[in-house]
Design a protein that fits this description.
434 Repressor (Amino-terminal Domain), 2 domains, 7 helices, 2 strands, single chain, 157 residues, mainly alpha, 56% helix
């Protein structure tokens, strides 16, 4: 089932990616695992992973707030200087983001693939697509069948 596309701004995309980088950096500076952050934020490790992936635009804002509170509190307690999140917001510009789960799975496979292997991945996908296309009907020219030496575009019988 394909879900209806929703509007996400290019600034939203940039902000989600910036928050992902910020969250990962803070977690690394504090020496925490995603599970540690999740427990302190009242979220699952998977939710923290989605925050840090930079691709999940449907992650609830309350999850980002909970994570930010954890980093703020732990940064103060440990006196660890953490990067600022100032300047992550921008003016909205509309663009359509496809939320087809199969398309997103394909994009995730591409993004997860090492850059040196992406061309091979694309080649494989294109070959698979070609295999799913209907084969052209090969019709012989009756004249080529008379002498037994087929020269028509359909090839030998």
């Amino acid at each position: 089932m394909v879900k209806q596309a929703r509007l996400v701004t290019p600034d939203d995309v940039a902000m989600v990616r910036a928050l992902a980088t910020w969250s990962t950096t803070c977690r690394d500076l504090l020496g925490l695992s995603q599970d540690d952050v999740g427990k302190q934020a009242g979220r699952s490790q998977g939710a923290i992973s989605r925050v840090e992936s930079g691709h999940c635009y449907a992650t609830p804002l309350v999850t980002y707030r909970a994570v930010a509170r954890v980093y703020g509190r732990l940064g103060d307690e440990t006196r660890t200087p953490l990067p600022s999140v100032d300047g992550l917001l921008g003016a909205p510009t509309l663009m359509t983001v496809d939320v087809d789960p199969l398309r997103q799975a394909l994009l995730h496979a591409f993004d997860s693939c090492p850059p040196s292997r992406r061309l091979g991945l694309v080649d494989c996908v294109q070959r698979l697509v070609a295999l799913t296309q209907p084969m052209p009907l090969r019709v012989h020219d009756p004249a080529c069948m008379l002498d037994g030496d087929c020269t028509c575009p359909a090839g030998a019988p």
